[in-house]
Specification:
Number of helices: 5
Number of strands: 9
Shape: elongated
Largest sheet: 5 strands, mixed, barrel
Order of helices and strands: HHHHEHEEEEEEEE
Structural class: alpha/beta
Amino acid sequence: MKKKFLGLICLLYAGIILFVNHYNILRNFLAPNMHIYLLGSVPIFILIAVIIFYSDKFHYHFKVLDLVLILPLIMLIFAGDGRLSTSLASNKNNMAKITKKVKKSKVTKKEPKIDTSKLDFENPFFEIEDDIYVDLGNYLTYNSHAEDFIGKTIRVRGFTINDNSYLPEGLYGLGKYGVSCCVADAGYMGFIINPDGHRIKKSTWYEVEGYIERKEDLSGHDIFPIHVVNIKEIDGKGEEEYVYSCSQYEDQCKKLQQYNLKY
């Protein structure tokens, strides 16, 4: 039985991987481009288990310390579906780091006056979906070329933070957790919103409609927040909490081409 302990562990690992993949929970732990590597380990685990169970040439001496192999399984049970709490977003905020890299515009331009009565949100210019969330979030919030889109309508969903370390009073972050490799490197990223009198609660999911404008952060750098026109609170349980760069989705960044972004 002690010999079979390692084989059982291998089968449990294989079973857990297949389970979280079948119920679409794996994306809450790993970015899509990493799934193939983890799924590729399943037949290896099964093969090792078969060798352990049926080969007389395999020798294994059980030690109490080997129980540490169960630890990842226990951690996975307590992790649940792997979703991070929205309250952790301020501690994993990547938006402030990017903002500091953006230079202040040397040219003072007169901002266009927006007639909100003529804004059409039936078909907004930017409809932010998950497969372009990270890329357009970074571009529209921090890239100096985002000034080309001042006044353009936008609709986006996400949850809020209020980080006074880089945002002027009254502005909020609206975003999701951006993941490069796995949930361990998840960082809050998305958009900056100007509520313009609308009541905003921290760590709350919203759908926001508005237009792009220009403001400055606390360091005098240009930022391009969404001036809120319409906002509604939504149920975050039904929302995808993690987003990835467009290259990790099936569309392969083709949706971005329609915007003719400049870098």
